[in-house]
Amino acid sequence: MRKILLLLAAFVATPASAQTAASLVGSYDGHQMEMGAELHLLADGRFEYGVAYGALDEAGQGSWRVEGDRVLLTSDPVTPPRFVFTGQKPAPSGTVRFSLEAPQGVSLQYFDAVVLLAHGGSKGGQLSDDGLSLPLDPADPPVSARMFFPMYQLKSDAAPIDPAKGYWLSFRFEPNDIGKADFRGTALTIDHGDLLLDRFGRTIRFRRVG
């Protein structure tokens, strides 16, 4: 009887997460319409990840662990891309203008800009190769502005607008480690052996292969 109790105690003391982690080690295929995706959970606690979705390519590596019914991914250190607000100057009468400095070969048409208006509304649009021009309503002027890179779900901090300096707003885009996934305890739900990741407005279902 004593031996049975000791065996039961040892079983209870074994961390469930460790057993689950061991059972999840392997390679997963997340391919679906218009998207290629793969995930490798390695026995040493490392992961490798990659997604190709239209013009977007993303890859990453780092550490993984299990917490309840979720797998948590944390990337190796990444320097994320960012927008820098570089200043204001007078714009043509009746307009709000956006200029964006981007690396050579990166089309400005990938970017959007939005202004928050004094009365609480907003307006914006997609940049062209000449930037973006929006109508200015003196009765409801813009008070702050943001830049967006929708493909990578990036946005700038809100840049406050000083009306005394004018309404031509300039930004710079610094790509840094763009294309590298910056997971910070990002959760994948465990669903009957599959792993579900919400990414880029879609749910990627990673299925075990091999």
Going across the biggest sheet, name each strand in turn: 1-2-3-4-5-15-16-17
| Overall body shape | elongated
N-to-C order of helices and strands: HHEEEEEEEEEEEEEEEEE
Residue share in β-strands:
over 45%
Helix content: 10-25%
| DSSP strand count | 17
Mean pLDDT: 91
Structural class: mainly beta
- How many individual helices? 2
Which ranges are low-confidence, i.e. pLDDT below 50, for 5 or more consecutive residues? 3-19
Can you summarize the main beta sheet?
8 strands, antiparallel, barrel
Cα Rg:
24 Å
What's the end-to-end separation, in Å? Answer: 43 Å
Characterise this structure:
The chain is mainly beta and 210 residues long. 10% of the residues lie in helices and 51% in strands. A hairpin with a 5-residue loop joins strand 1 (26-29) and strand 2. The model is unreliable at 3-19 (pLDDT under 50).
